[in-house]
Amino acid sequence: MILMRRAVAIMIWNVLLWTVGVLALVPATFPVAAATRTIEPDPVPMVMIPAGPFKMGSEDGKGREDERPQRDIYLDTFAIDQVEVTNERYLAFVKATGHRNPPNPYGSGFLHDATGIEQLPVVQVTWYDAKAYCAWAKKRLPTEAEWEKAARGTDGRLYPWGNDPPSPKRANFDREWEGEKTMHPVGALSAGDSPYGVKDMSGNAREWVEDWYDPDYYKHAPDRNPKGPAKGVVRSIRGGSWHSPMWDIGVASRGRGGFALQTHGTGFRCAKSVEGPDGAK
Q: Could you tell me which residue ranges the Sulfatase-modifying factor enzyme-like domain spans (predicted)?
């Protein structure tokens, strides 16, 4: 009996040593919040945003009235594209589905060729265009709350990188139109990344989100997984663009636009619910 107990103890000890050895080989490059995955047919990295609360909106006396009050909002786990949808990716969608081409912001007519502008964010897309793309990619548009949490993390910071003022190394903003030189390739300004490693959440291209826009929504929105008003007239836009002034590219800043709005400063990125114990139900 004693010999059997010793044998079992030795076996358990060896298993523990093997387990520790295997875990030591697993790279710890990314925290859980920054884990990425891709989804066909749109193989762009998606960043996993963990479940939990965050501070949404602006404090009293700061920002615009439609950004207040600031509240603690709980979100289930979700994933969001690490970068904005590019011209290259969008034209792949157009080719695969027969969806209409967007107007060409760099010339006349419609955009048919992404040569030289492959990695610039697609713009001149309507809310319906953005929604159709995300559906094709087996994703969806992010909610305002999801977009803001991915941009600012949980500490209530003013910008994706923290509270320091914007600079050209962190964001592409407050510029005049210079054709193909206006916007940066997606992900080019790593100094402006959010706490989760999501890129270009301030400036470059503004981004459509799912929600109807309501200037008073924050006053009565649910504290858990808010999805915006049940109805409205215009949709919300977040993030500011290459043309936005410094005060309009903060993570709490809200914009809005009609369904048919197409501007050379508005694009989008996609999100996806995550099934599981701590994910969206």
A: 46-272
Residue 121 lies in a domain: yes
The CATH number linked to 85 is 3.90.1580.10
**pLDDT tens digits along 107-138:** 999 999 999 999 999 999 999 999 999 999 99
Q: Which amino acid does the sequence have at 48?
A: M
Angle, alpha carbons 59-61-49 (nearest 5°): 20
Domain that holds residue 52: 30-273
Cα–Cα distance measured from residue 279 to residue 78, given in angstroms and rounded to the nearest whole number: 7
Task: Say if strands 78-81 and 42-49 run parallel, antiparallel, or are unpaired.
Answer: antiparallel
DSSP 65: G
Phi first, then psi, for residue 250 (nearest 5°) are -70, 160
Buried b or exposed e, range 225-257, using 16+ CB within 10 angstroms: bbebeeeeeebbbbbbbbbbebebbbbbbbbbb
Provide the number of structural domains found in the chain. Answer: 1
pLDDT digits over 29-77, tens only?
A: 233 345 566 777 898 999 999 999 999 999 999 999 999 999 999 999 9
pTM assigned to the model: 0.86
- Name the residue among 103, 121, 113, 117 with its Cα closest to residue 172: 121
Structural contact between residues 96 and 136, judged by C-beta atoms closer than 8 angstroms:
yes
Domain for residue 160, yes or no?
Answer: yes
Which residues touch 210 (CB under 8 Å, ≥6 apart)?
131, 140, 141, 142, 143, 144, 227, 228, 235
Assigned domain for 114 exists: yes
156 C-beta neighbours (distance < 10 Å), count: 17
